[in-house]
Amino acid sequence: MTIQWFPGHMTRARRQIEDKLKLIDMVIELVDARLPLSSRNPMIDEILQGKPRMIILNKADLADPAITSLWVEYFKKQGHEVLPLDAASGYGIKEIPERSKLLLKEKRDKRAAKGMNQRPMRGLIVGIPNVGKSTLINRLAGKSIAATGDRPGVTKGQQWIKIGTEMELLDTPGILWPKFEDQTVGYRLAVTGAIREEILNVEDVAYYGMKYICEYYWKNIAERFELSEAPQDLDNPNDIVEIMEEIGRKRGCLMSGGRVDLEKASKVILREFRAGKMGRISMETP
Ligand code: G4P
């Protein structure tokens, strides 16, 4: 499902998060580990008003681990707790409460110094559509709570999900919009499936992804599709299209007369990329 982000929706989404900020101690911001900047809201710092923040690099199972380590350092330098994880399998999520304690250490130490009991740390999950917010909430809750593809502007009763004894999360995530203004961001989000490629042209999206992969991850696709020759000139569209056609031929995407159906080939390329079949690929570096 695609959310149409008109200015009114953005204002409402922002207001909903601002209202919830009053109820919580910290924010868990989810981004896609493969493109941590493109999969973020451009106004996030302003919207969160300095709340302590943990950045979760989700879908780390699909990202290049070496690049993910660079992103961890990048966000740490900005003063956030950072945790790469895989919400779909649950790998890494057990660390969330302990990391939250580190994030809120100052506040908790102050309470302890005053002889006060610690109350559960209260958090809110935020992120753009499709980064895995519902998947993570359901994993943490151990049951299905947040409907995947929650819409902005639809409110329901506020519920807290208990994560062990020391943490509570609001059951509805804050949904934010990505950076639309930048075309590169749009293509990157489309390649990963965060926005539907139908909005753009599927061949253009696959072309964008293929060019990137040929430049940085040639070995991955050379192996998977048994390609013999790397494109000679990455800036020559014909060279990239030739690779797409070769993949199409290998996957049987043919039209009558034996010509390659480039649209079909593009869909195959995007499907295999998104499923991680081309290996772990990151599309942005710090
Ligand atoms: P949202 O609430 O932020 O909109 O995202 P949601 O949880 O609906 O997740 C979007 C898609 O991303 C889902 O796939 C989900 O399974 C997948 N996903 C979430 N976290 C991870 C992760 O850590 N690793 C991987 N590989 N995938 C993840 P889908 O195709 O839309 O649905 P489904 O086919 O999995 O049911």
Automatic annotation (TrEMBL):
Transmembrane regions listed in the UniProt entry: none
PROSITE patterns: G_CP
Entry's Gene Ontology BP terms: ribosome biogenesis; translation
Molecular-function annotations in GO: GTP binding; GTPase activity; RNA binding
UniProtKB keywords: Cytoplasm, GTP-binding, Hydrolase, Nucleotide-binding, Ribosome biogenesis, RNA-binding
UniProt superkingdom: Bacteria
InterPro entries (UniProt xref): G_CP_dom (IPR030378), GTP-bd (IPR006073), GTP-bd_ortho_bundle_sf (IPR023179), GTP-bd_ribosome_bgen (IPR019991), GTPase_MTG1 (IPR016478), P-loop_NTPase (IPR027417)
PANTHER family, sorted: MITOCHONDRIAL RIBOSOME-ASSOCIATED GTPASE 1
Name of the molecule in the record: Ribosome biogenesis GTPase A
Organism: Paenibacillus bovis
